Amino acid sequence: MQTTRKQLLPGVAFRAVHTEKFKSSYLSLTFMAPLDAGTASENALVPYVLRRGTREHPDMESISAALDELYGGAIEPIVRKKGETQCVGFAASFLDDAFAMEGEAILEPAAALLGELLLRPCTQDGVFRADYTAGERDNLIDRIHSEINDKRAYATLRLKQLMCQYEAYGADMWGDETSAAAITPQSLWARYQRLLADSEIEVYYCGSAAPERVEAALRAALVGLPRSAELTQAGCDIRLTAPPEPQVFEEAMDVTQGKLAMGFRTGGLTVWEEEYPALVLMNAVFGGTSLSKLFMNVRERLSLCYYASSAVEKMKGILWVSSGIEFENYQRARDEIMAQLEAIRRGEVDEGELEGARRTVITAHLSTLDSQSRLEDFWLGQAAAGVDEDIEQLVSRLERVTLEQVVAAARQLQLDTIYFLKGKEG
Amino acid sequence: MELKTFPQIGEKMYCQVLENGLHVFVVPKPEFQKSYAFFATKYGGMDMRFCLDGTWHDTPAGVAHYLEHKMFDTQDGNALQILAENGASPNAFTSSAITGYYFESTEKFEENLKILLSFVSIPWFTKESVDKEQGIIGQEIRMGEDDPDNQVLYGLMEGLYRYNPIQVPIAGTVESISHITAETLYACHKAFYDPANMVLCVAGNVDPQQICDLAREILPKQAGPIAEKDYGPAEEPQAAKPLVERHMSVSTPIFQLGFKGDDPGAGPGALRQQLTAQLALEALLGNSTPLYARLYREGLINQNFLYDYEGYPACSFLAAGGESRDPAAVRDAVLAEGARIGAQGIDPQLWERIKKGVYGGKVRGLNSFENICVSQAQAYFAGHDFFDFAQCCASIEKSEAEALIAAWVREERAALSVIWPGEGAEG
Lengths: 426, 427
Prior knowledge:
The complex is a heterodimer. By secondary structure, chain A is of the alpha+beta class. Chain A contains 15 helices and 13 strands. Helix content of chain A is about 45%, strand content about 25%. The chains are: A alpha+beta, B alpha+beta. At the A-B interface, helix 2, strand 5, helix 4, helix 10 and helix 12 of A face helix 2, helix 4, helix 10 and helix 12 of B.
């Protein structure tokens, strides 16, 4: 597996992973926009409207037919949030040329179709078609509404929104309903032009083709991409401290199981710090695996919940705990979660816990090399952070983390916000 | 070991039947970091009534799933922990028809495999440990009851089937699991966790012979009796109820539209029915059909619209669903398109395209070890090899898909399950 990175065009970086282990090739193109509540909905909507039709393939039916001809390839809009960067674009997966029934090339037509979707939308009066814009805008609003359906994800989403309500990070990657509802074909077209010209762009390929061949195909596909002299750069604001007393928010809904989410600041411990691997391992010991303190104690020993886990956002410097509990167990679960953190802070982590967490984290990282989409997501996160470290390098740093470093990372955590989703009375 | 090669899709598979009846399948993947092992029994949520040693047993809903939770307990502790300490990510699932245990690891594969084979084959339950699990599984059941995607599927099963236990929730109910004891679990383990009723599928950078040697070392030497199952009276082709509705706190109505299929039977015919049904769905309402485009344009479906064929012992169905403001309009449109295809046939150009698309999609799916191993286990239980899909797919005629649509996509075989937005319990 050979990984290279180079500049394709001004502000357009191209990362190529050359490997023959997969049956498919993976291509993605992503605008790296600053996350901002004012533009989030429009940015998120752009790839969905682009995906509706191009000049050559004016409707979804003809795009799907073109994809079927390319052996059921997929080009899908993708919206992600990496720190305070809103990543919007397309991810594409195509059959590797080796398995085409007639031995035909799939890479070049696939790259061309991606470029077509990006640069040659089907228009009406010089802007996006009104029906496509309205249809996808309604879908976006539905998507924002439907975040409530998965209560586990919803509780952590609300926690992060409330915890970071005065920071860019508090914005949802889909934006909000009010700004989504205000989008018109004209306003969306203007945003699209800004993304095309001003955004930094990440292009990614993973597959069996030589990087030179992919580069040629991408250059041909991106002919006509406008580039400004001044590109906008996304940053990331990091709050070092939590309020003296944690903020507590409760919401009531018609649910049978309560959701408790707790958010911590990492005291500035982020992907850019040398101690970052200690935070990754500390999270694994705390709630990141099925061996973790939260899993073994809050779930297994006390049967207080069906799940209890923790996760880290590597750029923003926050860690959150998510658990599903009976309503009446709120205080007990909250106390027990804090007690487990205290135990780590006191160094009460035995050899088995630490090594188990280390093996689990390292396995998860190494197995990322076996999945095209996860590997792409890893590199996109690195690109957003401006970090070039590869997985093997990160793994070798994880191998060297000591218990003292894990304890130090745990001592940096400060409880910032608690969110509790409870049932309706009666 | 027998080596089968599938040159068209660049795969090979070692196969071996051990003396105790266990079937072992190994797909070598030397260029990958991880290895994946899947150890499964042909026993799932629908296998509630069975006969062993001449006696019929009726067991409560949720035993297979309960057993899955408790199998990780060993005399020395918890296998999940030991595997996790080796950095393996172990887990398990129970479907209606099978229970599977698996792990993925990048180091100590043989040691991990030994642990997997031993904890699944050696039951260790105590009254205390079984009682304690009531709380954990009770929470999981409640979570499922709050999950609209889960509820809409059970609504569809209720609509399609009158007798088949596929409609019973896999995890059971808080009430049904309260009847499960250590004795129930031991009895069901004895009935279904015999090597002759199981399969081991491995993919990764592994030595096939060594895997068979490990299985011989750890598992029972002899095959035991296998329980006979009862799925109730044969189902009629007609759906049991045309419409099943509930209310939950969702933002948009969620629906599943189903068409009752035929018993897939066992052997290569089951694979042919599966692929024919998947091609038929692509021709009927797939992403590149005029019907899909129209429904999408009219806002009746969105990007979350998904569809597939499901085959189980003694039953099968087509399901399509997602979010819609008017699920009945989607049903009516699909029925009308089914009737049109029944009369006029599938457009030949569309047919050629979707065959390429389905083939390519399935080959891309071979990137996933989990997909390879779980699919091969299911294929083995159904009596064929998963990798035969490429050849079989190429041989399916347009007329077969047309015949399937004409026979299945009919009003009397249709059921619609809808979760409407709104507070309140089940309606």
